[in-house]
Amino acid sequence: MHGIVEPAVFERMVTLRREFHRHPELSWQERRTAERVATALEALGIPWRSVAGTGIVADLPGPSGVPRIALRADMDALPIHEETELPFASEHEGVMHACGHDGHTSILLGAAELLTRDRELPAPVRLVFQPAEEVGAGAQALVQAGVLDDVAAIFGGHIDPRYPRGHLVISDGIVNASSDAFRMTVTGRGAHGARPHEGIDALVAAASIVLQLQTLVSREVNPADPAVLSVGRFNAGTASNVLAARADLGGTIRAHDPAVRDQLIEGLHRVAEATANATRTTALVEITEGTPAVRNTPRMAAMAREAAGRIGDVPVEPLRDANLGGEDFGWYLDAVPGCFIRYGAGVPDTEPAPAHSSRFMFDEAVLAYGARWLYEMARMVGEHVRTGASLDDR
Questions:
Q1: Between β-strands 242-243 and 173-176, what pairing exists: parallel, antiparallel or unpaired?
Q2: How far apart are CA 134 and CA 142, in angstroms?
Q3: Which tens digits make up the pLDDT trace of 69-107?
Q4: CA–CA separation, 143 vs 159, rounded Å?
Q5: Which of 209, 249, 320, 336 has the fewest Cβ atoms within 10 Å of its own Cβ atom?
Q6: Which DSSP symbol is given to 200?
Q7: How far apart are CA 56 and CA 42, in angstroms?
């Protein structure tokens, strides 16, 4: 890989990635994946332990009294039928690695191998193989289990085929939005479709709520603040000639600014209540708190760029657009300093398929770049930590 990592290391990462890809596992079910990670760590002579069910944590030793540097990868797959036609496509019907987590896990194992070759690390390193990112729950569970105890900073990345292979995408500020889910039940009174005046139409009331919700972002949120409120599920009615007595809705709220996040949640309740009153229905709203926004501080982003410079001639660019996607890495950054980047992985001469799609794929060269960047971050930030320098500019 042009000196990024040794060919043998790269080949092992590719082999692991393809094995993980063939055997994807859904959130909290990553038992086979965790076992394979453990076997790979044992081959490197790295002790490990299970955390939060299917999570794996491993520690590389460093000078005593120096806080750890943590590196994180996620392991879970998605309930998607794969259509990539890759020779190592999923062997589990209806389950696919459609977001690059197979690559993330292999990248961290590659970084682990690079780190084991150093006779002395400037600071201890903690390897975090996280379950359940896709449901936004794994990071919080690992934080509660103590994986950040005695950790000075944490770093991770996400494969992104929208950027050229070999590019590292590093930005200050918000790089992933907060993500909350909502469910709404609108209740009316059923009646014959030919005599609607005898009932209270929950379907029409719910449709009115959906339309009014569209104004929360377009008319109440500052256009300079990225935000989205989307209704993705609408179920109502049992027959074409029966007035719906109930409608069930579901959706997502995304925001960069915590104040906007609160504003949208308040607006959702307000619109639902007001529209229900106007239509003689009732609307019950349930909010499921999701993940916080992922924010890179200027200092951490600068250190990430410096680490990229240590690799060699690696192009570094910022995110091109505001990202409203969620990522539970925010739970880590709420607790300790760190940085979350994107690894460019576009397949040459190929239109990239979106993440979470049945044709998602990436250029495996990204494995080398990701592993080397994590290695350089562990070394460089470890050198700062060993001197007693503070990393926290949050």
A1: unpaired
A2: 14
A3: 999 999 999 999 999 999 999 999 999 999 999 999 999
A4: 23
A5: 320
A6: B
A7: 12
| SS3 of residue 359 by DSSP | coil
Tokens of 183: 């469910």
For helices 366-386 and 7-22, angle between their N-to-C axes, nearest 10 degrees: 110
pLDDT tens profile 283-339? 999 999 999 999 999 999 999 999 999 998 899 999 999 999 999 999 999 999 999
Q: How many C-beta atoms surround the C-beta of residue 254 within 10 A?
A: 24
Q: Which residues contact 306 (CB under 8 A, 6 or more apart)?
A: 380
Quote the tokens at residue 80.
């998607």
Say if CB 311 and CB 372 are below 8 A apart: yes
Give, in order, the Cα–Cα distances in Å from 286 to each of 250, 251, 289, 331, 342. Answer: 9, 11, 10, 22, 33
The DSSP letter of residue 67 is: P
Q: Which two tokens stand for residue 332?
A: 């880590």
Q: Are 90 and 21 in contact (CB under 8 A)?
A: yes
Helices (H), the chain: 7-22, 31-43, 101-116, 138-144, 202-215, 258-279, 298-311, 330-333, 366-386
By residue count, the chain amounts to 394
Q: Which helix (H) or strand (E) holds 338?
A: strand 338-346
